[in-house]
Amino acid sequence: MKDSELTSQSFELSADLGEVALDLLFKEGLLKDIPILGSFVKLATITKDIPNQIFLSKIQRFLRGIENLSEKEKENFLRNLDSKPEIKSKVGECLVLIINRLDDMEKTDILAQLFLKYVKSNIDLETFRRLASAIDIAFIEDIKGLIINPRDNQCLTNLVRSGLSAVSSSGVPAMSGFGDNVIYIGVRISELGNLFVELMNE
């Protein structure tokens, strides 16, 4: 048997085993009752190309990140979703779009932790979506650095575009203006960034 054939068969076997594990997690887990997400996962399972396999790997990792929810927490969350069909649909859309875009598996773990906070009503859907969008935009090492040290100036500078930090009106003199005016430019952790660090360190 050629090496290429062996590699191909190994990949297919790995994918099939991954689908079995994913199917079990999905059927027994929380997300089976969220519309759109389930349909998207089934479609990705049928189409065995690399992008879809990567998406399924991220879904599997996400599911493992939220599997410790108690039955009561799941029931309360799903009951609340059932009473708000438009929110239920929005949750599914949000998860599919964000998980599909994530460029690092570690971001999937962070997203799962934030989703747990949403399920437990520690944050609302809008806040979860804002945080999820920030995670999508930011570089993973800057995110991890912020969690460890919220005052890390380099991380804060890099995270401005994500919204986890913001330009400050005070800081190191950057340039002279007209006359005696001096422009001060600095960075600080934003309100969203503070909330993110607090949630991740609970």
From TrEMBL:
Superkingdom assignment: Bacteria
Protein name: Uncharacterized protein
Organism: Cylindrospermum stagnale PCC 7417
